[in-house]
Design goal:
Elements (H helix, E strand, L loop, with lengths): L7 H13 L2 H8 L3 H15 L4 E3 L4 E3 L1 H26 L4 E7 L1 H8 L3 H7 L3 E7 L13 E6 L6 E14 L17 E4 L13 H8 L10 E3 L2 H9 L4 E5 L4 H6 L10 E11 L6 H14 L3
Parallel strand pairs: 3-4, 3-5, 7-8, 7-9
Antiparallel strand pairs: 1-2, 5-10, 6-9, 6-10
Helix pairs in contact: 1-2, 1-3, 1-4, 2-3
């Protein structure tokens, strides 16, 4: 339903003049001239086709019509002011967005999300899980945990941990030594674009390090992501060359075992944000949380 109302400015001016019983005092309150107050009142009276004030030499008094309008208008303006103040004082939600690989997010970040809100109760956390590199300068995320050599153009990179890889499987497979591998199913995962720029751990390089020449390093089951290879190993579907950082909990609980070596050094996990962005509140919050969780690992 469309409301037929006079201009809000004239109503606000009338309420101030009626409360102060003076056009001059109303003008001082509203920050305008007494002439402007008088003009607004006359506009309102013309709209209503009634007189709202009896003008006297030193003060003004409400007419019957003015006394009828004033209480309801004052209550309405008070209600509006309270509503505006409540919205103005409502705390804004502050969100910090952190990007990381799917596997790192699932295995190392998700179990720790509660600690960020403990450190910074006024902040919400958004995790962006993707194996694609996000554009931090474009605002796709506030910061990221990246896996690589530890150097990223235009970015500040703080080292978190250096990864290590070894054969990992369910104890149900009964693997005891490298000589058992030819009879087992090898599990693989796609490293994505990073494999074209640096040497990454794989079964071929591991077999060479282990001195095994009777293993077909390309046989077995392949997955397009690391998380699926981890789940397949847990399910007893084969043996995978996995990040010991990502399966630390499963190794500690005995869900997975590392039956033998050698252990291969991988790349570095780094906390990354645009150069000069450390003063941004979201970056500072994420940095505080991530370093507290991983700096000593």
């Amino acid at each position: 339903m469309m409301r037929r109302l006079p201009p809000l400015a004239s109503l606000r001016t009338f309420e101030a003049a009626a409360r102060q019983e003076s056009f001059k005092k109303a003008a001082a309150e509203l920050g305008v001239t007494a002439t402007a107050v008088s003009h607004q009142i006359r506009q309102l009276e013309a709209y209503l086709d009634v007189s709202l004030f009896e003008r006297q030499t030193r003060k003004v008094q409400l007419t019957v019509e003015g006394r009828s309008l004033y209480p309801a208008l004052r209550a309405a303006l008070d209600t509006m002011a309270e509503a505006v103040e409540a919205v103005r004082k409502r705390p804004r939600r502050r969100i910090a967005t952190l990007s990381a690989t799917v596997a790192f997010t699932a295995k190392l970040l998700v179990p720790r999300v509660g600690t960020l809100r403990s450190l910074h109760p006024g902040w919400d956390l958004r995790l962006h899980a993707s194996d694609d590199t996000v554009d931090l300068n474009a605002g796709d995320a506030d910061a990221a945990i990246r896996y690589g050599l530890g150097h990223y153009a235009g970015m500040t990179a703080l080292p978190l941990l250096t990864d290590r890889f070894a054969p990992v499987c369910s104890h149900r497979l009964g693997l005891r030594e490298p000589a058992d591998l030819p009879g087992a199913t090898l599990l693989h995962f796609d490293w994505g674009p990073i494999a074209s720029t640096v040497d990454v751990p794989n079964w071929r390089s591991w077999a060479r390090r282990a001195g095994i020449d009777h293993l077909d390093p390309d046989s077995g089951i392949s997955f397009n992501d690391e998380s699926s290879a981890i789940q397949a190993a847990i399910a007893g579907q084969g043996v995978a060359l996995l990040s010991l950082s990502l399966v630390a909990d499963e190794l500690a609980s005995g869900v997975l075992v590392q039956p033998f070596g050698p252990i291969m050094e991988g790349l570095k996990f780094s906390f990354v944000y645009p150069e000069g962005a450390e003063s941004r509140p979201a970056v500072a919050v994420l940095k505080d949380w991530v370093l507290a969780e991983f700096a000593e690992r």
